[in-house]
Design brief:
Structural class: mainly beta
Radius of gyration: 13 Å
Helix content: under 10%
Shape: globular
Strand content: over 45%
Number of helices: 0
């Protein structure tokens, strides 16, 4: 069974930085796309950034030029470097991995204070 374990969330002041990490385990298969989504209470889960196995990336407009997604295919990890954080970035961040079926991490809280 695929498991995704996230780390790196926390509380930061506006303008600060955080780095989220996610490690996949439990299978010898390699994921296709890996990505990060975020969700605030009462709203849908939205895409933040996604990266293909070949390294192509796509970002939500709201995080372009501030966030950078990367992955290590050998270790099946995906990271999200978040710079110049804003209060609107406050959310629970979820890691996602596509093994022809989507698997999700448990979520990590990111809180940005003004």
């Amino acid at each position: 069974q695929v498991q995704l374990v996230e780390s790196g969330g926390g509380l930061v002041q506006a303008g600060g930085s955080l780095r989220l990490s996610c490690a996949a385990s439990g299978t010898v298969l390699k994921p296709n796309n890996m990505g990060w989504f975020r969700q605030v209470p009462g709203k849908q889960r939205d895409l933040v950034a996604i990266i293909t196995s070949g390294g192509n990336t796509n970002y939500a407009d709201s995080v372009k030029d501030r966030f950078t997604i990367s992955r290590d295919n050998a270790k099946d990890t995906v990271n999200l470097q978040m710079n110049n954080l804003k209060p609107d970035d406050t959310a629970v961040y979820y890691c996602d991995a596509d093994y022809l079926k989507d698997y999700w991490g448990q979520g990590t809280q990111v809180t940005v204070s003004s």
